[in-house]
Prior knowledge:
Layout: E1 14-17, E2 20-26, E3 35-41, E4 47-54, E5 59-63, E6 68-69, E7 74-81, E8 87-97, E9 104-112
Parallel strand pairs: 2-9
Antiparallel strand pairs: 1-3, 3-7, 4-6, 4-8, 5-7, 8-9
Amino acid sequence: MIQPKRQVGSSAFVKITPESLDFGSQSVGTATQPKTATLANTGTSTLTLTDIVTSGIDFSQTNDCGQNLAPGATCTIQVTFKPAVTGQRMATLQILDSDPASPQSMVLTGTGQ
Length: 113
């Protein structure tokens, strides 16, 4: 298992699993069932979450993360794919937080048909 790089002066670390979400093919204009990503604070201090956002127009998210994530705690992010046009679609889910390595990103892919 690859460990995150330790930054001097910080003990908050973020792990997102899985590393990416692939939604496969979906009819244009219709949404998939949500897929779940887990955000974990693997450090020893509380993580302050600033924002969780998706890029582009084809993916959206909801989450139960709140503003702070205690050491050892996890929260879930539900991502939905609703393609606006046909073809391969790609975006990122970004987590902006107090970890020195912020923002963390996850690749989102799907195909509009």
